[in-house]
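TASK: fixed-backbone design
INPUT:
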């Protein structure tokens, strides 16, 4: 049968006799409720949009693969990292953070860098950003932070006062704010930016020995950023610029690639390092823990359907495989729950059975039922455990490595409160031209803030990072430095 010979059907497979005219009582009569094809079309149309992501709503994705170029199996037993030349299929989603689904690609915002590895031991998700740090370091602050990035409940407009009020009261944000307000805040394309796992993770080898690890994905296209004037022009004239660029590059055979490196820290160093290695607002010095090449990521195939493959793709930092585990990073600990829970709400409790999320490894569990059950639902097999009927059982060799815990159960802050050294180091690494653009961007972003005390408080943070940094921002805003500095 040729394509033109195919019958249009309902979702239950029955042929549709008329798809142009609804059924009515007489030629001018009211529409009949018995026109089930009409009702199905309208009902499905009303439900075509799943709730957009609360954060990272606007995104683009592609398929590819990861190839190991350096065998680091002495540090991790993860099978997909075992042996030079080992290839693992992947799906990658890039995104902005704060904007809605229809927002512009070229706004000043961090970019999500979410990777799904379809390994033989199950899916491994690495859900990071194009920055090595984040604004906050405890998940309990995340809803409040994101509220400041969203719209005012009365005006429904973006609210710079809320943004800078929160940042000025959360000095741990200064490192990420400096990155965001620098040239790196607006990547030229999704292909011309680095990616980071951001958090600290734990690798465990076959002997049960563990190390702490951070991931770095360095773009092979080179880092390029957009001038603010061009970015604003593109935001108005071509809001899907990054999405189109990624699609066209892959479509034309210009496959983007990233080289993956890791930093490895011995477990015992976490107790003595000059910064808390589990504080996601900090980086590890590459002089202390040099980059070690691990592999190469290549994106070489576009999605066939955006909704099915990009919008319904779900990533969770808690999707681990044997050999990779969590660290005590308090932001990571919160994300282990929050991401998967968001997917259960947004896409459905069976989101991992969708083709884009379905593991390439065999899946055996006792979860049953729930909305959108699209597989056999376990058939007639045993549906509880333990059982006497040969159902799947646990694999003791896959248990996470034991780790010591101590202290009181209480709400505590991080021990290290130095929010300024690394932000100041970053400022001093910039050229004079880059510093000037950074200050100009900060001044422009802070000018609309309604309360002067917020501006003064934030200027104090800039000054503590580097006196010149604070002085230039203060001068740009026409304000004096805070007393006591």
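OUTPUT:
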């Amino acid at each position: 049968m040729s394509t033109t010979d195919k019958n249009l059907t309902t979702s239950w497979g029955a042929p549709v006799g008329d798809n142009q005219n609804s059924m009515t009582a007489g030629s001018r009569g009211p529409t009949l409720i018995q026109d089930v094809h009409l009702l199905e079309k309208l009902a499905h149309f009303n439900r075509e949009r799943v709730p957009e992501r609360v954060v990272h709503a606007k995104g683009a994705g592609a398929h590819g693969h990861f190839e190991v170029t350096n065998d680091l199996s002495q540090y991790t037993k993860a099978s997909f990292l075992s042996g030079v030349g080992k290839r693992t299929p992947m799906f990658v989603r890039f995104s902005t953070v704060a904007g809605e689904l229809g927002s512009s690609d070229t706004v000043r915002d961090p970019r999500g860098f979410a990777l799904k590895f379809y390994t033989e031991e199950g899916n491994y998700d690495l859900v990071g950003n194009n920055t090595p740090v984040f604004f906050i370091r405890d998940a309990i602050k995340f809803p409040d932070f994101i509220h400041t990035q969203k719209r005012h409940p009365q005006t429904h407009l973006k609210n710079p006062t809320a943004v800078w009020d929160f940042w000025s009261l959360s000095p741990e944000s200064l490192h990420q704010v400096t990155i965001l307000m620098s040239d790196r805040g607006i990547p030229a394309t999704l292909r011309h930016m680095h990616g980071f796992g951001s958090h600290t993770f734990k690798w465990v080898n076959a002997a049960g020995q563990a190390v702490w690890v951070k991931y770095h994905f360095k773009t092979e296209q080179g880092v390029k950023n957009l001038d603010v004037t061009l970015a604003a022009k593109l935001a108005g004239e071509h809001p899907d610029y990054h999405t189109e660029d990624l699609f066209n590059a892959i479509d034309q055979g210009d496959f983007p690639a990233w080289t993956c490196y890791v930093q490895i820290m011995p477990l015992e160093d976490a107790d003595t390092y000059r910064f808390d290695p589990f504080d996601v607002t900090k980086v590890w010095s590459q002089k202390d823990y040099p980059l070690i090449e691990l592999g190469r990521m290549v994106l070489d195939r576009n999605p066939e359907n955006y909704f099915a493959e990009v919008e319904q793709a779900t990533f969770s930092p808690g999707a681990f495989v044997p050999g990779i585990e969590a660290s005590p990073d308090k932001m990571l600990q919160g994300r282990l729950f929050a991401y998967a829970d968001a997917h259960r709400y947004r896409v459905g409790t069976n989101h991992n059975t969708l083709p884009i999320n379905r593991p390439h490894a065999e899946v055996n569990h006792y979860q049953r039922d729930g909305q959108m059950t699209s597989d056999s639902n376990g058939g007639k097999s045993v549906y509880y455990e333990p059982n006497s009927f040969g159902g799947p059982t646990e694999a003791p060799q896959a248990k996470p490595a034991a780790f010591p815990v101590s202290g009181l159960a209480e709400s505590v802050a991080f021990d290290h409160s130095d929010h300024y050294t690394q932000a100041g180091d970053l400022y001093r690494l910039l050229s004079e031209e880059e510093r000037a653009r950074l200050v100009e961007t900060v001044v422009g972003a802070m000018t609309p803030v309604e309360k002067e005390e917020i501006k003064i408080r934030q200027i104090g943070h800039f000054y503590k990072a580097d006196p010149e940094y604070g002085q230039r921002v203060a001068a740009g805003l026409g304000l004096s430095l805070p007393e006591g500095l």
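COMMENT: The beta strands are 59-68, 87-96, 111-119, 122-129, 195-196, 201-204, 210-219, 257-266, 292-301, 324-325.
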